[in-house]
Protein 1
Amino acid sequence: MENNKNYFDMAEIHEECGVFGVYNVDNASEIAYYALHSLQHRGQEACGIVCVEDGESTLVKGHGLVTEVFNEKTLKSLKGNMAIGHVRYSNLGNGIENVQPFLFRHHSGDFSICHNGNIVNSKQLRNYLEKRGSIFQSDSDAEILGHLIKKDLKSQRIEVMKTAFNMLEGAYAFAIQTKDKLYGVRDKYGIRPLSIGKLNGGYVISSETCAFEVIGAKFVRDVEPGEIVVISKDGIESHNFSEFKHHYLCAMEYIYFARPDSDIENCNVHTFRKESGKLLAINDDVDIDIVIGVPDSSISCAIGYAEAKGVPYEIGLIKNKYVGRTFIQPSQELREKGVRMKLSAVHSIVDGKNIVMVDDSIVRGTTSKRIVNMLKEAGAKSVHVRIGSPEFKNPCFYGVDTSTYEELISARMDVAGVCKEIGADSLKYLSADDLYKAGNRSELCTACFTAKYPTDIYGALEDANKDRKF
Ligand code: SF4
């Protein structure tokens, strides 16, 4: 099954999670279900929902897509007007014990937690907590937070939380639920997104605003970096746990992870990508007939590029959305042509054409190589690859599954080398400066391109370098 998964899953890079919370809205579990479904692109390995009714928390979680884990019966068992939910991707710790949300039973009252991101000092915090008697059941950072805040959740709750969040270093967005409150928290660097919406007199929080549209919620504002938002019967209360505040939002959220219909920190994701395509086209004097984008995340960037060049944008690649994880293992012959099961070239569009193929990123290089080859087999005269991000040269330690240099083709080769390796006629990347321009931003996390990590990374770089053979 694992091979099957790798075979059909063409994405070279994964986000690790999406979080959602709802407060004071009838049928909260159904709202969470629809919201998680719209966040499914952030994680397809597992999901879960915790609902609260009369102070009692109920949890349902499992491996699989939202539509596989939940059905009418399970949703009916989740009663109440408060819920938090989670979708998860992970390349580590795949047991059910790692599936979120986590539900903690405590003498001061149940509480549940889920998060998106990665705590870079988790090893140190685990040691610290274990020395003080904590026992861990999972590899998850959410459990670390649970142990840090369980101390006395009742009396000095917000002070305990402030102290805890000041101990966590890294990128995170947390949704936390007690018997009568919903909390939304973002790291002080602002790396992971989290937004607040209003729905039927209640509130929702979500990793992405695309969930608001689906459930009919109205966007209120983003949770600020270093902020704890407390949602209760008194409305929204705001607490700062840190005076250090930056907006180093993960650039890959705009480039690749987020849905084009989401707005993050006042910038629509489609608009960002389209703008980056326009910037990519400036001074790019390649002679072409058509522009195509690799579906789905590169289409906006390709449209921007085509518009700026005055060249037609065409659908030269089609994605088969129905290749699921349960698809039977095909024959060896088909496996070798595997990428076609998920993506195929439109022969009549690309045949005889000089093409610019826009993709969002090149991480390992294997997918780009397959697609260029596929286009040439379909008759393309030339394939010029244009990438809507800079060269991906450095590992991410903030919840994206690239943690070694070995995996990254641009850490091993220069642009000419990568171009040759993927079989393209030419290759050009967006500059890091253009990322800021595309989003009209002064701050962004661009560490995987520039090696400028916004946080201390606690020796992670040395670990990532350990197996470096170049
Ligand atoms: S290193 Fe790259 S992928 Fe990781 S948070 Fe920063 S921009 Fe995003």
Note: Residues 269-281 form the longest helix (13 residues).
Protein 2
Amino acid sequence: MSAPEKIFDVLGIGFGPANIALAIALEELSSGMSVQFLEKRPGPAWQPNMLLPGSDIQNHPLRDLVTPRNPRSRYTFTNFLFEQGRLYEHLNLPLHHPLRAEYAQYISWTADFFEHIVAYGCEAVSVEAVTPSNGESAHYTVCCTDGRVFLARSLVLAPGRTPHIPAPFADVKDRRVRHLNDYMPALAEAVAATGGQCRIAVIGGSQSAVEILLHASCHSGVREVVGFTRNFGYRQKDTSPFSDEVYFPSFVDTFHNASAEHKARLRQELVHTNYSSSDIDVLNQLYVRKYEQMLQGEGLLQLRTCEDMVGCTPASDGVQIDSRQYLQGIIHSQSFDLVILATGFLDLGAGDRQEPFPKLLASIARENEIDTLIIARDYRVDLGNGLPTYLNGLCESSHGMGDAGSFSLLALRSQNIVQSLISNLAVREQSHA
Ligand SMILES: Cc1cc2nc3c(=O)[nH]c(=O)nc-3n(C[C@H](O)[C@H](O)[C@H](O)COP(=O)(O)OP(=O)(O)OC[C@H]3O[C@@H](n4cnc5c(N)ncnc54)[C@H](O)[C@@H]3O)c2cc1C
């Protein structure tokens, strides 16, 4: 292991949109804190395995990494287009929202400005709080897979959410069963392994599920695509402007202040603003694709609705999936060369589709006998060690629907975290003066 040279004021783990927005806010708002980010990927990327041709983003492009906080910043999406020399061409596009490929370029372009403070190819694997016996101030020690070690007075954790793997797939260790996070490389592997005769199952009723069904069903080397959803049909997102106020900063206050019972009620009502549902453009395309295949007498694309997953058994000639059509109680079994779980992500908490802690903080929490993380309005968590520790982009269960699954609040969330860091690090410095 390499010996760490300095103690950073702020160490960010993960350099996706959440911590890129933080890097911008630290540069624009803070007074010279020393900052380092760790990113396990070899370079900047945003959801690289889901950059499907023609797919668009689901947020207004001005709700980018910085505009809602500082529209005059050089890091806005508008300035990105301007500096690329394609502002007019972009504004002339007959699209409701920008292409995901273009937004991914914007994210990478922004990340590149901060290259000097990001260690790429560096996956954090352990986080430990250290209190030196010589009276020096406490700090975190973070170890990475490549042997590098980093010390810091505060931590901002932004690793993205943990994939949700439904029960029948939870214990299956097989490269033919993959989460949507791996879709494009998994598809390439499966097509190659089957000599261009690939059978694919897509589990779930999310936006990603519908996009993958559309992509796979016209991809060469694929001979069968079956979508499974437990819903009656693929559902449209709730795009009412009234519901979309969940992406307002004021909603974060409303949600954070609500009781557990009221949070659950709000979530139940508003979940389809982003989850288990899709935009109408891709739903219409999927419906027409299905109809077109019926006209041509083809059976490449099938959609099995009202189906609960009950089993998954890998074998040499395919992965067998068992599903139960709940209306008739009939079990359907079918084998596939690739099973894509478009089944979403976990939130923090003790309920269904939740995990109690981000993996990297689990051992510290257990050591300090913390059962439940209390996440303050400024995204700070108390791990019982006094060190400023923040969660950036993991807080839907405490801060509402706009937190993890959307860009909408990234810019303002970074501002909250930076302001809290400034006051907490200053307080700690004074107490050790
Ligand atoms: C397919 C897809 C499409 C989406 N499209 C939209 C959209 O159009 N609009 C929208 O508002 N939202 C969209 N979202 C939601 C989107 O995930 C978030 O808006 C955004 O990516 C969250 O950023 P993040 O930085 O919190 O997480 P991520 O984007 O997941 O970034 C986390 C980063 O941390 C790194 N990392 C993880 N663990 C470690 C570790 N231990 N050490 C070092 N690095 C680590 C990862 O490599 C990654 O780069 C989409 C999500 C998906 C899955």
Note: The pocket of flavin-adenine dinucleotide is lined by residues 13-19, 38-41, 46-47, 50, 57-59, 123-124, 158-160, 208, 393, 405-407 (CB under 6 Å).
Protein 3
Amino acid sequence: MGAVGKEVRLKIYRNMVRLRFLDDKINEMIAGGIGITQHSTRGQEATPVAACAALEPQDYVMPYHRGWGWAIGKGMDPKILLAELIGKKTGCCGGKGGVHLADWNLRIMGRPGVQAAHVPIAAGVGLSIKFRKTRDVVLCFFGDGASNEGNVHEGMNLASVWKVPVIFICENNLYALFTPNIETTSVRDIADRAKGHGMPGVIVDGNDAVGVYQTVREAVQRARSGQGPTFIESKTYRMHGHTAMDRFHLGGYRPKEEVEEWERKDPVMRLRTRLLETKAASEKDLREIEARAKEEIEAAEKFAKESPYPTKEELSRDTYAE
Ligand SMILES: Cc1ncc(C[n+]2csc(CCOP(=O)(O)OP(=O)(O)O)c2C)c(N)n1
Ligand SMILES: [Mg+2]
């Protein structure tokens, strides 16, 4: 699979830490009475961050609802993200996207509210890349619950028939809302379904950031060289609830031991330990990265809170095509 350089591993660690602090900050803001719909990425940081690290700036991301890893991974400034989430005009959509944000400069094509609806669109973005004959690729994220939606299968089938450069990443965190996927999903390995759509189905340990990076890098090379789509199932777990609303009711639908077991597999701690063991960084280096990330997120909160709301005139701008 090829080695992963120290610089890349450190970049991934830095972004995972920034994401974790951002996640904590949003929860803190919600607890303070600010209305944000937060689907926590705690425990799942490795997948979106490491996957995006395998991209080049011109590549596309079709995100999904869980967290902001794809935004941080694609280079969005946390202050612009936080401002958008609380409706401020300094946000990436001028405060009018809110949690359903997009940033076409970063080639983040819009976070959908309808599960799986973006998957056929990802195939369409792939087709446009093929028509335009550029070497870009598309990363399309969705969850295990969404993988049962017709849209996922229609999108995967089209991508395969058209042989377009799309990488489907299913973050299998074992639950959709409060239902374990053992009750809703016909296969234990969702990657098995890729065969039915004529593309490789790869399973990766979603809490191993370096493994995710290597797997996505290989799929990206495959897509860029015209060999078509790949389906990646990332086996992972969300440490918090579905949203901040069920954060404190974990015991109701999942065993305490299960949560504790996955807490021991924390992807941030895992990469941290690995960086120290392989001497890619010292304890001092890592503490510095962590301290800077914390400062950055504190400053982002201040920026977002102090930013103005859009004016009445600005509210209706960009909302209709002429
Ligand atoms: C078509 C559709 N059905 C239902 C919902 C409500 N809903 C939002 S998130 C979610 C669970 C999705 O689970 P999964 O795909 O496993 O992603 P996870 O939340 O676990 O990351 C549901 C049912 C929706 N937004 N769209
Ligand atoms: Mg899920």
Note: The chain has a mean pLDDT of 96.
